[in-house]
Amino acid sequence: MNNGIFAKYTGIPIIVVPDSKKQNRTHRKKRINKKWAKRYGYTTYNFIEDEKVITMNGSMYVNPRTYYKLKSIEL
Fold first, then answer.
1. DSSP alpha helices (H): ranges in the chain?
2. Are 1 and 26 in contact (CB under 8 A)?
3. What is the largest CA-CA distance in the chain?
4. 3, 19, 54, 57: which has the fewest Cβ within 10 Å?
5. What Cα–Cα distance (Å) separates residue 54 from each residue in 9, 43, 66?
6. Three-state secondary structure call for residue 41
7. How many CB atoms are closer than 10 A to CB 43?
8. Among 53, 50, 70, CA closest to 61
9. Average pLDDT for the chain
10. Predicted pLDDT at 40
11. Is the model's pTM score more than 0.90?
12. How much of the chain is helix, strand and coil, in % rounded to 5?
């Protein structure tokens, strides 16, 4: 995903950090755990907030929503 036009002009690679999701309640048996996943759901965790860019070691780290906003701006 870091081969966008923005990366070509600036020369800085863009790395997209995906959100993670964790099951709210788990059970040790697979069959029952699948039912619990339906019942209790998942919580998503954003490692990087929306519209925030972290620059580290010559790379830009963004979340997927910010990346798509950058991609739409550069066209």
1. 5-10, 30-40, 64-74
2. no
3. 51
4. 57
5. 18, 23, 11
6. coil
7. 10
8. 53
9. 85
10. 97
11. no
12. 35, 25, 40
The amino acid at 37: A
Question: Long-range contacts of range 13-18, CB-CB < 8 Å, 24 or more positions apart?
Answer: 13/58, 13/59, 13/60, 14/59, 14/60, 14/62, 14/67, 14/70, 15/59, 15/60, 15/61, 15/62, 16/62, 16/63, 16/64, 16/67, 17/47, 17/48, 17/61, 17/62, 17/63, 18/63, 18/64
| In the block, residue with structure tokens 């039912």 | 35
Q: Is 45 exposed, middle or buried, given 0-12, 13-18 or 19+ CB atoms closer than 10 A?
A: exposed
Structure tokens at 5: 């036009």
